[in-house]
Amino acid sequence: MPHDPTLERLLSFLHDSPTPWHAVANMSKRLEQAGFRRLDETQSWKLAPGERVYVTRNDSSLVAVQLPDDRLQALRMIGAHTDSPGLRLKPNAAQVNSGWLQLGVEVYGGSLLAPWFDRDLGMAGRVHLRREDGRLQGVLLNVARPVAIVPSLAIHLDREANDGRAINPQTQMAPVLLQGGEKGDIERLLQRWLYEQHNIEKADILDFELALYDTQPPARVGVEGELIASARLDNLLSCFVGLEALLASDGRQGAVLVANDHEEVGSASACGAQGPFLGDVLRRVNALLGGEGEESFIRLIQASRLISCDNAHALHPNFADKHDAGHGPAINGGPVIKVNANQRYATNSATSAMFRDVCREAGVPVQTFVTRADMACGSTIGPITATELGVPTLDVGIAQWGMHSIRETAGSQDVAYLTRALTAFVNRTELV
């Protein structure tokens, strides 16, 4: 298959971003390499026209802002989320059963549980320490080798395993970690891994937020490499494409990339889309560039547009009946406009028309998804951000299979399609 530098960057980003904290760290690194300056929310800011800046919150959400050389009159906004469904360790995770040290986990988000069995699991997240000098410090941890597994029960012992048996996450999904281990071994292992990765020899572990993840690397799949298979495509794929588009833009227009944490659990947090993070940043930016009062901020927001990017359900060849007959997005068929009359998606005819015109200009095919009328519909940060800010919004995404599985599948051509469309959106002079 032909070499594609963009897809290689995507696969590396997916591989190196097992948690939202790692994703934001990797996005921050690329932004700084491209000349973006990091801002600290606890400090005073100074901004000038033409600057490019970014800010993080909780180390798991990010807002990047590109300022125009002249007056800031509108923002071309791209939104995505950094979190994905999965298994996270409980605070007192150690369990000893039948001679094995196991990990107590809770399910984060609406995860498909069955694919987690019999996978080679690594562990990643962040750990907070007290150093010898009394200083508190948070560090990222990524144990990128198989250290745990959730073994299946043999079919000989469960003859109804293939008949839709429910999975109990409390009693049936505790991964095995160490044979003959004791409860205190978890802290010992964390200390060892912290030393290996950060050369931290003596520190008290105060707390952690750790997740398990599949160590199988992302890959191009198919005879011609038509597909991308990876964990966390929902929604790191959109984070990557949004970042690519921002960095590829001509830099002349006001633009924002927002990547929120906690979408998979409702977005209600200080750094989630339902929280104040994006509004806080934009109000400060508006004030520092001469905007006077709430009226000028509302004028800015109403002149702006937000494209909320979150993957869409592709037509599955084995389950075609799960789609409305007129709305089955194809893999590698171009970006998907997501519509829902009950506002589970924020798209309306005006924002959809703008995006269709953007795609026309970029030479990109475009598709539409509406869920079946007899099925429930998911949602995104789009309606939430639109509600919080009042910004005109639409929802789009790349079509994928296996959403919320431990390994998801999308089309390799769609990465370039959506990147071209979003780049054209960021470069667009008129947002109508």
UniProtKB/TrEMBL annotation:
InterPro entries: Peptidase_M18 (IPR001948), Peptidase_M18_dom2 (IPR023358). Its EC number is 3.4.11.-. Keywords: Aminopeptidase, Hydrolase, Metal-binding, Metalloprotease, Protease, Zinc. The keyword Zinc applies. SUPFAM superfamilies: Aminopeptidase/glucanase lid domain, Zn-dependent exopeptidases. The keyword Phosphoprotein does not apply. One of its GO terms (molecular function) is aminopeptidase activity. Its cofactor is Zn(2+). Belongs to the peptidase M18 family. This is M18 family aminopeptidase. It comes from Litchfieldella qijiaojingensis. The gene is apeB.
